[in-house]
Amino acid sequence: MLFLFTLLTIFVIGTLLLLKTKSERHFIVFLIRTKHFLKFIDEVAKITPKFWKFVADLAIVISFSGLGAAYLSKYRKESRNLDIIILIFGILAVLMWARDLLLLIVMLCFLLIGILSLSKLKNPLFDFIVATSLISSIFLSAMPWYLAIFEGIFGLLAIVFGSLIEHAFAITSGQSTMPGVSPIIPWIEAGEWGFVIPGLGIFVPLGYGLISLILLLVVHEFSHGILARVHKLDLKSTGLLTLGLIPIGAFVEPDEEKFNETESIVKMRVLSMGSFSNLMLAILSLLLFIFLIMPSNGWVVKDSNISNIENGTSIMAVNYINISPESHTAATMNALLFSNRVYTIKNSTIENKSVVNVTTSKGIFLVKSEELLRVKLRYVPRFRYNYDFLGTNIFAILVGILFWTYFFNFNVALVNLLPIVPFDGGKMVIELISMFKLSEPVVKKIVYAFLFIGLLIILINAYPLLDMLFEWLFLTIT
Description:
Blueprint: H1 2-19, E1 24-26, E2 29-34, H2 38-46, H3 49-73, H4 81-97, H5 101-121, H6 124-139, H7 145-154, H8 156-172, E3 185-189, E4 192-197, E5 202-205, H9 206-230, E6 235-243, E7 246-254, H10 256-261, H11 264-292, E8 293-294, E9 299-303, E10 314-318, E11 321-322, H12 328-337, H13 347-350, E12 355-360, E13 363-368, H14 369-373, E14 376-379, E15 382-383, E16 388-389, E17 392-393, H15 394-415, H16 424-433, H17 440-477
Antiparallel strand pairs: 1-2, 2-6, 3-4, 4-5, 6-7, 8-15, 9-10, 9-14, 10-11, 10-12, 12-13, 16-17
Helix pairs in contact: 2-9, 3-4, 3-6, 3-7, 3-11, 4-5, 4-6, 6-7, 7-8, 8-17, 9-11, 9-15, 11-15, 11-16, 16-17
């Protein structure tokens, strides 16, 4: 109750303060505009505009794979970006499938000949077939053939839409009681302020959550702004979207009328950069995260019923066999996602022995197997570097920031590609459909169909969350 009262107080005070400003207000939602960052966006946009256009075109193909290549095929006369993009995917595919040097050379030669032919033909259908084939072949090593083909045709959209559809079937068939989608809300857990994702048991410490969300919003919106300025589109302002005093979004505001009137490729490039920049930030954060953590056992006793082994003791081996996790990266991620999760020693580790040797940070102890099985452990990651400042490990904080930056940016990048307006993916699908030269009524019907199907799938994925809410309300009332 204290947490909710404090949150409500901050909200009310913030709202009252903002009411006295000239900020645009929509009930209790405020748009705080500024022009301070427009010059910075202009300066970045002036740095090799051709490079930014290439990155945006690459983002289109990564987002929509074969369909994205077919769309860019219409604009081959303006640039050779599609040739370079297909070459990149082609080289990746060749490196994955060439078994020896001779085959590698032969495949690269065929690839170059094929790209030169495509460049002369300028045929969207051929570009679609080649791009789909190359991208599908890359994903064949990581997923079933039918999923690889869908990825080759529809891009990242296939991954996010496919996973939501799969989870919707799991919910409707009773195989899963966990929500597939869930909001992030302020919360307090074990005396710590932060954010919780209901139904998933994920708690985000307040500092990590705020930093990660700010990075996500700034990178996303500034990327839109940079591509807008590359194409000489005017920007009115940048700013924050707040609920009372609480930031819930950021924006770069273009001249909407001019943006809607500009040609399709410009709109597509501007829209594609938001999710793509979030995805690149997620990958960079993940790589740095993996670099900073180091393989270790990391198992620390949380609750012991053995006199020899105290709480806080590290356990490294049982019967001299190392019990480190199969993936230190995955174990560290789980430790950050589910900070209160506890583990126990597996029966298979004991091998039906009544007494075992346990190697710990405080020596080797002989204990009964049944006692060891009841010991509760938690995973405490170790880091490649350690630097204490005022009793706090700076690199532990950095690892936390990197992980949550990865977590939020990766998930938002994929969700934002859903073919539902007002997501960027919904607006981009409209531009993709434009290459088929359909009438406006037909385009509207397709957009509404996507919207209906998308909302239905999201509602099914959210059903367990609604069920939990009704159950909580019922218990509270009774």
